[in-house]
Hints:
The protein is built from six helices and four strands, in the order ααααββαββα. It is mostly helical. It has one domain: Jann2411-like domain (Jann2411-like fold). A two-stranded antiparallel sheet has the order 1-2. A two-stranded antiparallel ribbon has the order 3-4. α1 (8-19) packs across α5 (106-125). It starts with 7 loop residues before the first helix and ends with a helix. One zinc ion binds next to loops. This is CGNR zinc finger domain-containing protein.
Amino acid sequence: MHLNPYGEDPVRFVIELTNTPPISADELARRCAEAGMVVDRTVTDADLAEALDFISRWTEVVDATTDEHRAALLNVLLADASAHPRLTDHAEGGWHIHYRDDDLGLAGVLRAVASVGTALHLSGRGMHRLGRCALVECGSAYADFSRAGRQRYCSHTCANRDAVRRHRARRAC
Ligand SMILES: [Zn+2]
Ligand SMILES: [Zn+2]
């Protein structure tokens, strides 16, 4: 998985991991590979624990209530997970930038790509573009990639369900 200028792919992936956390090292490895990450070494339970710890800290970035707090939380993740940028051509797809040290395990790569991707997403599209679904019984995390930037639900399904409910509530009065 390469970082595009707005970090969309890593942000989509960490949202999926947040809403449905992996329950085994094998599952983590499979899902990372499906997301386009290079999985070239054995993924261990330590990787799983590191990934889950990162996901719970990343969730705090989603739940931050001010831009400043969101930035501060993400800056801590960036300080822990990323390193100076460098050019590399280790994989097919040509030269690209890594914001991390070489030779990290899968969880280390995930932490770096998700932290930098989130910083690109928020700085490029807007600091408010992470949130929780407004449908009360859902509450899934989402990232807003829409043009208008006014997303409030994780999916069309939840938006429609809430619209139907509000319509019924109005008619009942
Ligand atoms: Zn790479
Ligand atoms: Zn939802």
